């Protein structure tokens, strides 16, 4: 008989395991362990969502990102540190290997503290460029907080994204919400398709180094301005590991996470930094925007045999795929973003067929998409492939391999089923009937004798 205590423990373990699809172990790297008190609200929200937080400094010798080939942490949260390097246990190579192993990171920068060289090198691998001094201050003389930065204009007050870009999910859409970016550092983005800028600087903002460029900015040393500068960037590697770069670590502090701010010519309102921080960490730690393929089925139209290994050219085939999306603590039906399509390809070396899948059915936890189509007039080895790779969603690339054969000798249609053959068949049967009639006439028609009487043979 099973113990009730064991049953309760199993439920607790299942609840904890469900916090994130990538695991719940978080390493928080900060300059001093006492610094976590300044981020108590954000860190408390992470713990309330079931994450197990471990706090370490770069000077700690006990930090190990992996052991015996397995990750010791699932996620890393980097807060500003004053040291130039992160120590021998968090070198750029080790951090890249951590990402390759499926680990996720949140990198919070600051304009008052240069970023560690290890993080600068890691971000450069993803075409994220920081200033040469590894820090910089973004100011805006038109979009600042009149309550705290009336003179310096170094606290930016920006509207949160009010609508998702065309074809993208709305995970970070927060209409009517204001975000505060105190003393933020900007970064430039390359052309990598793995980058998604979540918040860009306004057109009137610019970046400079307060220590070296207080009197003026040399054009040769100018880093960036306007929408060249990204303040918050999401990075998703090809293995769906995630990195979030936040230009202002202060926006995550208790002082600012729910502070009242006032944009120029507006009344004071509470910032939405707390909700924004929740969505940032939720996305980075794979609590949202995670897709799962539950099943893929294909069969001859009208047949009950599922997933046969071989088809015939020009067969009518039905294809279905069941997909779910993880949303905080449960799997929900996946909804394709507006102005986007989920497609299926029937491909050999290149697609022979590419079709938009249609929603056929929705269950409590999944959406079933499908499409009926005719196989191409080409034999060989083919793949049913769903290659769905979109920003802010984990990548889906599923294949099912089948063989497609020629029509067998006894499967060709009979001549009388082909309308174009009817004239030829008519000619054949006309010839046969005419020949039979000729034979009949020749056999049953006697020749005429002399005098006009018929001959009946010799006496």
From TrEMBL:
The chain crosses the membrane at residues 421-444. GO terms for molecular function: transferase activity. Residues 1-18 form the signal peptide. GO terms for biological process: protein N-linked glycosylation via asparagine. It is a single-pass type I membrane protein. GO terms for cellular component: oligosaccharyltransferase complex. Pfam families: OST48_MD, OST48_N. Residues 25-284 form the OST48 N-terminal domain. It is found in: Endoplasmic reticulum membrane; Membrane. Pathway: Protein modification; protein glycosylation. Residues 299-445 form the OST48 middle domain. It comes from the Eukaryota. Its main location: endoplasmic reticulum. Keywords: Endoplasmic reticulum, Membrane, Signal, Transferase, Transmembrane, Transmembrane helix. The keyword Transmembrane helix applies. Belongs to the DDOST 48 kDa subunit family. Component of the oligosaccharyltransferase (OST) complex. Subunit of the oligosaccharyl transferase (OST) complex that catalyzes the initial transfer of a defined glycan (Glc(3)Man(9)GlcNAc(2) in eukaryotes) from the lipid carrier dolichol-pyrophosphate to an asparagine residue within an Asn-X-Ser/Thr consensus motif in nascent polypeptide chains, the first step in protein N-glycosylation. N-glycosylation occurs cotranslationally and the complex associates with the Sec61 complex at the channel-forming translocon complex that mediates protein translocation across the endoplasmic reticulum (ER). This is Dolichyl-diphosphooligosaccharide--protein glycosyltransferase subunit WBP1.
